Known about the structure:
Layout: H1 2-20, H2 35-42, E1 48-54, E2 57-65, E3 80-86, E4 89-93, H3 95-105
Antiparallel strand pairs: 1-2, 2-3, 3-4
Amino acid sequence: MRQKTFRAAATLATLTLLAACADARLDKLALGISKDSVAALIGDTPHRNNAYLTAGKQWEVQFFARSTTAAKDSVPWRKMSPVVFIDGKTVGWGWGWWSGASKKQKIAMPK
Length: 111
C-alpha cells in the first residue's frame, strides 16, 4: 500500500515538474514535418544539435532554447526543448518523449 502511494506521489510530482517546464511553442508541431518546418513554427533556430546512428536510422535531436539567447551563450540542457527527428522527419518532442525514446535506443541523456 505504501509503495502504491509513493508511486502515485512520484508520478504526480514528475508530471507537475514537466508541466512547469513545458514550452508552448511545441504545441504547434506535428509528426512527420521537416526540420525547416519545425524551425519556422518555433520561430527560432536550434541552439544545439545532437546526431546518433542507431538501429540503422539517423536520429537527430535539435534543442531549442526556451528564451532568447545568443548562439554563443551557454544554456543548461533542461532549459531547452528537444525536438527529435528520424531520417529528417519529426517523430517526437519534449523531455518526456525524448527520455523514453533515448532509454529504448540506449542513447545517453545529457545530465
